[in-house]
Amino acid sequence: MMTTSRTRYHVGMNEIGLDPVYRIECLADFDGARAWLTGNVENTTEDVQDPSEFDALLDRLARTPDAQIVGEYAVDAYVFWVRAVEDCGCPCDCAERGEECDPRHNREAAAEPELTDPDEHGRSVFRFDGVPYTVFNTSGRDLDGYWAVERVPAESPALPSRDYVLVGQRTREHAFTLAVEKLRPSRHITFLPQRYSTVTMSEDDRDYDEYPHVTRDGWVCAWSTAGYVVVFEDRVQRGIVWPGHPVEASVTRDDGTALDIKGEWRFFEQAAAAVRDHVLTARV
Is-contact 79 57, C-beta < 8 A? Predict the structure, then answer.
């Protein structure tokens, strides 16, 4: 049984009160979720002295309808679970490294980012989908309002030219939380660098260059030199986002007219994700 492509199932287990130790799987359908859940229970059964409770759970799962498989199942010192997630964006090896995968893109669920303790220089690190980011204080001291987040390339511990995600945040933890919030839409949308017009360009060139042109498929956000962002799907405009205070967004209808969408977004990336969500939801 398949559900919509935007709904996936994270399946895992943990000892009660502890974080998961074993792999959490991101699966496309109920069949895969049931198989992974059953496998977790069966594997755990092999390591316990009295398997009777686990056998009872396996019998219960075998009788559970697909639509009711989502939930938590506590047995002995363990909790086994299936969680329905919408647009999780867990990266698949076929997209990340060009490796073959099954048609449903079953893969390991992306781990939630965790902030490390500060080093001797007061810098903390977290990883988002495998990419390292550093949280640090631009004053060189623990001063409120000066916390920043930057992306760190693999070949160097710091960028000669800062690739900032956020600056001027109150605390280390607040900077980390907001950075993750800002980065999440990048799991579904490619955000191209901001573009600017130059005074050396002719007026005709500036007019042509104002509207962004993209050559890649998928969901892409590209900046206009006029300061707004165009949301594309397979090179077709699906909406426009106006960064500012507040951030505003509209969806582009098939006839070319615009429909303003309501929302409160901290970052323009979140508004772009809202445009994508509106478009995909309207197709269901």
Answer: no
Of residues 56, 179, 165, the one with CA closest to residue 115: 179
The answer to whether 9 touches 84, Cβ cutoff 8 Å, is: yes
Cα 53 from Cα 78, distance rounded (Å)? 11
pLDDT, position 211: 92
Segment (H or E) for 131: strand 131-137
- What would the pLDDT profile of 174-221 be if each residue is shown by its tens digit? 999 999 999 999 988 999 998 887 777 777 777 777 899 899 999 999
Q: What distance in Å separates the CA atoms of residue 137 and residue 193, rounded to the nearest whole number? A: 25
Q: 274, exposed or middle or buried, with CB in 10 Å at 0-12, 13-18, 19+?
A: buried
Please, which residues bridge with residue 74 across strands?
A: 79
CATH fold, domain 190-283, is Outer Surface Protein A; domain 3 (3.90.930)
- Predicted TM-score (pTM) of the model is 0.74
Token pair recorded at residue 140: 């060189």
CATH 3.90.930-classified regions of the chain: 190-283
The single residue listed with the structure tokens 């405009």 is: 237
Share of the chain above pLDDT 90, in %: 67
The C-alpha atoms of residue 249 and residue 262 are separated, in whole angstroms, by 8
